[in-house]
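Spend some time on this chain, tokens included, and walk me through the fold:

. . .
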Amino acid sequence: MLEWTRNNPWISALLALGALLLALLPQLASSYVIQLCISIYANVALATAWAFFSGSTRYISLATAAFFGVGIYALAILHEYLPLPLALAASAVAGFLLALLVGLSTLRLRGVYFVVFTFGLTELIHQVVNWGAIKSRTVTRYIFTDASRVEIYEMLLAITLFTIAASWYVSRTRLGYALRAIGEDETVARHTGIDTTRVKVVCFAASAAVMALVGAVLTLQYPYVDASIAFNNTWSFEVLIAALLGGPGRPWGPAVGAIPLVLLKDQLVGSLYFTIALGLCFVAVVYVLPGGVAPLIERWYAAFDAAALRQALRTGRLPEGWDPAHRLKLGLKAGLARFNGLWRL
């Protein structure tokens, strides 16, 4: 993405124009479109935050629903005592502190042990919160705020753009290189001088803060919340599949996977077909697109070479040695060869 914007300034201009149009969308779109965009932004922000840590380090976390739910409950409790901006900030801090505590004690686990622990963490917090609610006779938490749908839209848009931009920026820094080194070989990374424990814990906590903040903002559109809604493990699996489908190795990759899944869910809401579709997406990621869709987009972009295409349009003839049809044919042959190899397995 960085190379695209450097070599093609018009892409940067288009991205800026797109962000501006999205900010102005509530003035033009219907309530249905605004609500759909709210769901898209929430899923994109969650998937990007997940990929920021898990996509780089390869620590597959299923604790998204835990941090998401903590943000919801923090907002539901604190909005009665604090102004809304402070309550939202406190929700993000709550997610950060929880992840900090969990990370310090569990990020030494690897592989399936870490996956199982993070999955169990959501259920553990769910049961603790549910038990406390029953004891205090406050099973349902009511939310009294005057936040409009447009305000929720704007907050989630800002969170999403910030998450993508921050993920892209960090990926170009020493911290981003340290995360990728941990993912390649943590032992080697430690021997090269990287403080792997601190890097993992801080990035895990930063990712959790975004998840908690998204949960807090989404809660503003509901009149009440309970533990079953807040700590629903479906969030963990949907975010995982969206990030893997789009491509966790690119800052913009999770968005590519999250958007079609949200649109598909909107069409199949309340149906078992969406669960089947999620399973098919997971199979596609594992067997056909192990790196996600984002690397394919980059290869297609390189094959068509937008700079050469603009030159051809300007001069009326193709540059010497440039044949997009030939490149596309080679790409299709490579894809068929890969499919045949999978079929033989």
About this structure: The beta strands are 141-142, 224-225. The longest strand covers residues 141-142. The two ends are 34 Å apart (CA to CA).
